[in-house]
Amino acid sequence: MTLVHNWQLGRRMEYPYFESRPKHQFAAIFNTNRCIACQTCTMACKSTWTFNKGQEYMWWNNVETKPYGGYPQSWDVKTLKLIDSPDNTWYTDGKDAKTASYGTGAPYGTYEGDTIFETAKRKNLNQWAVGYIPEDKEWRAPNFGEDTARSSNQPGEYSSLPEHSRWFFYIQRICNHCTYPGCLAACPRKAIYKRKEDGIVLIDQKRCRGYRKCVEQCPYKKPMYRGLTRVTEKCIACYPRIEGRDPLTEGRPMETRCMSACVGQIRLQGFLDDNPKNPVTWLIREHKVALPLYPQFGTEPNVYYIPPRWAPRAYLRQMFGPGADEAIEKFMVPSRELLAVMSLFRMTQTIVYEFKIEQGPKVFETEIHGKKFTMYNDTVIGYGDDGKEVVRTTVEEPVHIRPDKHYNSI
Ligand code: SF4
Ligand code: SF4
Fold first, then answer.
1. What is the CA 206 to chain-centroid distance, rounded?
2. What is the pLDDT of residue 139?
3. Exposed, middle or buried, 178 (CB in 10 Å: 0-12/13-18/19+)?
4. Could you say which ligand is closest to the alpha carbon of residue 35?
5. Ligand 1 pocket member 181 (CB < 6 A)
6. Which residues contact 57 (CB under 8 A, 6 or more apart)?
7. Would you say the CB of residue 28 lies under 6 angstroms from ligand 2?
């Protein structure tokens, strides 16, 4: 093991390989507050990439219902049980989780528990990262417990959590293209690699022998073994589209299929980099409204979530780390800049590398949760990898009034 820096944990941690970060890291942001679980993203992925016999388990994108849903069943409950102190071990300086703000260096404080890698080392296990292989029956469907809010409604096989008041939310899941992938660490064949140019994590199908070590040690359970071919597959981040090889793109990097198909307009994909005016970087690192999923696992996942504002905070802190309170606060009473950047979600399939805001008139003001909120009809402009404008939209959605006579007038 070597020591690498994990910014989500606010500290260095042990990992089998040296730290190596691409200049542009594939990243995505999902706004859980807007997802309607229509599964259009799930089908867009499935129909694009998995078309052979033996594809039954292959749901590289799935949308599950929390807290009782999961694909495979109970994946997070089971993994959380494998690491010690999976929550409430974040703060070192006595700051309260609700008020703490640590800047961008260690934005969520310091995680003091053990990651999946550190737990495996401390326990002297024959694994690089603690993990387990799900049983076949746990892979049956991509949204177990759909729209389920109470454990008492559930047959015995579902995860056992205490009974709680009625709430649920949807969580959208793809491979996180982690900075420190558990799958890559685990593979004895070195069949898994992380691309230097964009951080996409891929499995070399020719080298894979189907040992399923990646299935075991990815805490998010995103590599999937295909029984028919006896090799493992996973989300490939639609890399031909990222590379601008989709015929539609005219050479420009384009968002993945699951992102561009999203009906609820909850998804934005891009690259995490050092540019503070990159919308993805701004939402994650500058404004801190989008958070990693289970950062305590230690893989530094690169898919980020705006947490649901109605779910219990303790649950959200365990799931997204101690930044959950600050993120929800910012989302519920959005700043002028946040409203403008959020308007970019699903306005174009072309990847936006930088944004600019042109100020517009005041639309109205009100009070939300005792805080003053003012809305301005600003214009946000997105620029592609070549610096050319690829999208322009306003905060207020334009209203189009249909003329009396129109195409389907009777
Ligand atoms: S989410 Fe799992 S499969 Fe994807 S890169 Fe991370 S460890 Fe590997
Ligand atoms: S397409 Fe969008 S709204 Fe529909 S389930 Fe997927 S993420 Fe949610």
1. 28
2. 92
3. buried
4. 2
5. yes
6. 139, 224, 225, 226
7. no
Number of H helices, E strands in the chain: 11, 17
Question: E strands, 212-308, where?
Answer: 224-226, 231-233, 267-272, 291-292, 303-306
| pLDDT tens per residue, range 364-399 | 999 998 999 999 999 999 999 999 999 999 999 888
The token duo for 179 is: 């900075």
- Per-residue pLDDT tens over the stretch 232-249: 999 999 999 999 998 887
Nearest alpha carbon, ligand 2 atom 8: 35
Ligand 2 lined by 171 (C-beta under 6 Å): no
Point out which residues pair with 5 in neighbouring strands.
12
Q: Which residues pair with 194 in a beta bridge?
A: 201
Residue spans of alpha helices (H) in 12-82: 40-49, 75-82
pLDDT digits (tens, 9 = 90+) for 254-284: 999 999 999 999 999 999 999 999 999 999 9
The CB of 61 under 6 Å from ligand 2? The reply is: no
Query: Of the ligands numbered here, which is closest to the C-alpha atom of 232?
Result: 1
